[in-house]
Amino acid sequence: MDELTDDVIAFISDGTRTGKLGYTASDGRPLVAPVWFVVDNGELAFNTGKDTAKGRALARDSRAVICVDDQRPPYAFVQVQGTVTISEDPADLVDIATRTGARYMGADRADEYGRRNGVPGELVVRLRPTKVLKAFNLAE
Questions:
Q1: How far is CA 128 from the centre of its chain?
Q2: Partners of 127 in the beta sheet?
Q3: For residue 72, with 0-12 CB atoms within 10 Å meaning exposed, 13-18 middle and 19 or more buried, which class applies?
Q4: Which candidate, 36, 66, 52, 34, places its Cα nearest to that of 121?
Q5: pLDDT tens digits, residue range 70-114?
Q6: CA distance readout (Å), 106 to 40, 98, 99, 101, 103
Q7: pLDDT for residue 18
Q8: Which residue from 88, 4, 80, 15 is spatially nearest to 42, judged by alpha carbons?
Q9: Helix %, strand %, coil % for the chain, to 5?
Q10: Which residue has the higher pLDDT, 1 or 80?
C-alpha cells in the first residue's frame, strides 16, 4: 500500500499519538526522534527547526519513515515510509504549526503554538508515502 487509507488516517490521527521519525545522520547512523504531526492532503506534516539535526538531515536526504503506535492492548502500529519535501513558506508554517498545536495542546492553545512555531528558521516537512504498513489488534 502506498497511500494513507481511511483506517490508517483514523488510527494515526487518534488523540495525541506521536510519530517516531526515522532518518539518517550525515555519517550514516539511523536516528529516531518523536514528532507532533497532522495529516494534510494524504501526507504527514510537521514542523522542525531548519538548523536541528532533523532539519539538516532531511534537507540532505529526503528518505524518512514515521511509525505511530498504540501501546495499549490489543496493540497496533502504522509505519509510513516515504520521501519528504521541505517548505519555509510563512503561511504554510503558521498553518501546520497551528493545526499541530490544536491537536497536541488543545484548541485553546492552537494560536499560541502557531505563532511560536510558524516563524523564520522553522520548516514544514511533509512525508509523502511510498509504502504504508499497518498492523491492528496484534494481541488478539
A1: 10
A2: 44, 84
A3: exposed
A4: 52
A5: 999 999 999 999 999 999 999 999 999 999 999 999 999 999 999
A6: 18, 10, 10, 7, 6
A7: 97
A8: 4
A9: 30, 40, 30
A10: 80
Angle, vertex CA 101, rays to CA 98 and CA 103, nearest 5: 110
pLDDT of residue 134: 97
Q: What are phi and psi of 40, to 5 degrees?
A: -140, 110
> What's the one-letter identity of residue 10?
A
Q: How far is residue 117's CA from residue 112's CA, in Å, rounded to a whole number?
A: 9
What are the DSSP calls for 15-60, one per residue? TTPPEEEEEE-TTS-EEEEEE--EEETTEEEEEEETTSHHHHHHHH
